[in-house]
Amino acid sequence: MRSNTSLVLRLGTAQTLAWASSYYLPAILARPMAEATGVPLASVWLAFSLALLLSAAIGPSAGRRIDRLGGRPVLMATSGLFALGLGLLALAQGPVSLYLAWTVVGLAMGAGLYEAAFATLVRLQGRDARGAITGITLLAGLASTVGWPLSAWMEAQFGWRGACLGWAALHLLLGLPLNASLPRTEALPPPEALAPHSAAAPSEPPRHVAWVLAYVFAATWFVSSALAAHLPDLLMASGLSLAGALAVGALVGPAQVAGRLLEFGGLRRFHPLWSARLAAALHPVGVLVWMALGAAAAPVFALLHGMGNGMLTIAKGTLPLAFYGPVGYGRRQGWIVAPSRIAQAFSPLAFGTLVERWGAGALWVSGAIVASALACLWCLRTGTGNSPSTGA
């Protein structure tokens, strides 16, 4: 138990650092970065979006390496890549160097964020990794809470270039040792080299399962990223003041932690498909409450959306494990989650267009998207493929 707690603390801390210095970095540094390099602000966000697309392309191959070699060498390499990319950002003088730096960060994101951490845990613990996966998301769920204030403080003290260098140093001084401390694992042959009927070979569920999971994760991640960028605008479009919108938006983070605690405390006794169904139902219910009762119900929406989003983050790790088992998990999960990264890259721009046109009415679209994901989850059945049968 103690060793598992230590593993979660080490990997969770490294993940918090990785998310805070990449995914959550532009929210604080994009504007000064654009001003100093002489590029439009939109170009910085475009470079970030391209980094997300690159991370989607890298994910399956990174997962395959973790399947074979374990997560330790891959995550150690990403610590170096994060440090290199952030160092290049600090040195960027124009659009070419800026895009090059974000390309390196994108490579690190593709092999160093949640999917890689989940694959590392599955490689170490097999089917028993569900609790550790939840623990990792509980810690890394604080990435924005820690990362935004720390980025802002470093930018105020040392400028945005100093902030990037500060994050690079943290990857070398903190992230690299943490990832290097992960347990070593023996190299394995590729999953396709296993005998088709050996005990270690995976029993494949129907092919549609992968497509359903890919759509569910892409749909929910599209909405999650869209709301992360535009929730304050939606709240103000409903009549709240800026202060009120920020206060309501601040509820999302604690609600995400509450959802993950619910998964860790009670729902992990059930098949993860049930947790995913519950999580996917919360956002559409929140939309209905908000639309029916108006801005006064916005806090209810924020709490429901946050809880569902927190639980769905865990489902991205546990559902592929439940349906496909631990053999070849990293590569397969990389393919299943790749569309999510693509959706994530385009969602702020696409949903922003809807907000400009319809205001708070854009929530009907987000609610319909997540409701379609919920319908797809009801098409799946527990007891399929590698998952233990607990009834549907």
Automatic annotation (TrEMBL):
GO terms for molecular function: transmembrane transporter activity. Gene3D superfamilies: MFS general substrate transporter like domains (1.20.1250.20). Keywords: Membrane, Transmembrane, Transmembrane helix. Residues 7-385 form the Major facilitator superfamily (MFS) profile domain. SUPFAM superfamilies: MFS general substrate transporter (SSF103473). The keyword Transmembrane applies. PROSITE patterns: MFS. Pfam families: MFS_1. The chain crosses the membrane at residues 44-62, 74-93, 99-121, 133-152, 158-178, 209-229, 235-257, 278-304, 358-380. This is MFS transporter. It comes from Hydrogenophaga crocea.
